[in-house]
Amino acid sequence: MKQFALALAAVFLIVAVLYWTGHAYPPGVHIKHAIVSVVLALGSLVWFRFMSAEGAR
Amino acid sequence: MTFAQAMLLAVLQGVSELFPISSLGHTVLVPALLRWHIDEGSESFLAYVVVLHLGTAIALIVFYRSEWLALAGAFARSIVRGRFSDDPHEHLAWLLVAGTIPVGILGVLLQSAVKALFASPIPVSLFLAANGVLMLFGERLRQRELAAGHPGYRTLAALRARDGVLVGLAQSLALLPGISRSGSAIVAGLLRGLHHDDAARYAFLLATPVIFAAALLEIPALFAPEGRPALAQAVLGCAVAGVTAYASVAFLTRWFRRNNLAPFAWYCLVAGLLSFVLFVTKVIA
Fold first, then answer.
1. Does residue B285 form part of some domain?
2. What is the C-alpha to C-alpha distance for residues B75 and B273, in angstroms, rounded to an integer?
3. How many domains does chain B divide into?
4. pLDDT grade, residue B226 (50/70/90)?
C-alpha cells in the first residue's frame, strides 16, 4: 500500500502539471483541475507518511 | 454596478455568508427585488464576488487565528509523527479534513451545473424557504431527542470522522442557492448531538477553507478580459465584506451560547415565500 500511495501522488502531480500547462483533455489551461490534483497528490503523500510510520512501528 | 450597489453587496455578503440565511440566495434575490440591472453572469460581477469571498475568508481566519494556529500545528505534528494522538486540536483538525472532503468533491463536480440550473429568483426563493424549514426541522428533532432523555450534549472531541463527513455532506447542500452553508452544517452538528455553540464553531471552522478555496479557485476570473473590477471598489468591497463578516461571526458565536436557529429559520421561511409570491405574480419582473 505504501508504494501505491506514492505512485498515486506521482500520478496526481503529473496530472496537475498537464492541466496547468494545458496539455490535458479538453485542450486548454484548467487551473481548478490542476489545484485539485495538487491537493489530491498532497493527500496521497500524507497517506504514504502514515503507512510508512505504521510499518516502522 | 454603481459604487453604492457594490458596497451594499459587500455588506450583504459579509453578513449573509455567516448568518444561516444563504449568501448566494441573497446575492440573487436582493438585486432582483431592488430591480438592479446587473448581469450576474458577467466576468466583472463574478470577479467582484470573488473579492468579497476573500474578505469574508480573511475575517474568519483572523477571528479564529489562535485556534487555526493550534490546529495547523497539531495537524502538522501528526503528519510528521505518522500517527494519531489524543490531542484535541489534532482531533478537530482531522475532523475538519473529513468534513471538507465531501464539500470539495461535490463542489468541484457539481457547482457550475447546479448554479446554472437554479440561480434564478424563483428557485432561489423556494430554496430559501426550504432552508428555513430545514432549520426548524433540525431544531425540533434536537428538542425531541433532549425531551426523550437523550444523554446530553456531545463535545467536538467526542465526534468521529463519520460525524465530520456527515456534517460536510450537509454543508454541501449549500451548493443549492438559497440553502445556507452554516445553517445546514449547524443543523447536522445538532443532529450529531452537539450544543449550538459547538455546532456553530465547527460550522464556521469548516466553512473557512471552503470559502477560501472557492475564492482562490475563482481568482482566474479576476484576470479574465473584462473581468477586472475597479481596483478601489474591489479593495473597499473586500474590506467592507471582511469587517461585516468579522462582526457577524463575533455576534453569532455569542448568540449560539444561549439561543437557537429559530429566528433565522423564520426569517428564511417568510422571506423565501414572500419573494416567491412577488416573482411568480410578476409584481417584480
1. no
2. 44
3. 1
4. low
B187 is in which domain, residue-wise? 3-280
Instruction: Pick the closest to residue B22 from B144, B160, B163, B118 (CA basis).
Output: B118
> How far, CA to CA in Å, does B25 sit from each of A43, B47, B127, B237?
33, 18, 8, 19
How many domains in chain A? Answer: 1
Q: pLDDT tens, B78-115?
A: 999 888 888 999 999 999 999 998 888 888 778 777 77
User: What global pTM score does this model have?
Assistant: 0.87
3-state secondary structure of B12: helix
In chain A, residues with a C-beta closer than 8 Å to the C-beta of B216 are 35
- Give bridge partners of residue B232 from the DSSP assignment: none
A contacts of B104 (beta carbons < 8 Å): 36, 39
Nearest to B200 by CA among B55, B69, B63, B74: B63
Q: Which domain does A47 fall in, by range?
A: 2-56
Write out pLDDT tens, residues B232-284.
Answer: 788 899 999 999 999 999 999 999 999 999 999 999 999 999 999 998 888 77
Residue B74 within any structural domain of the chain: yes
Contact of B35 with chain A, judged by CB distance below 8 Å, is answered with no
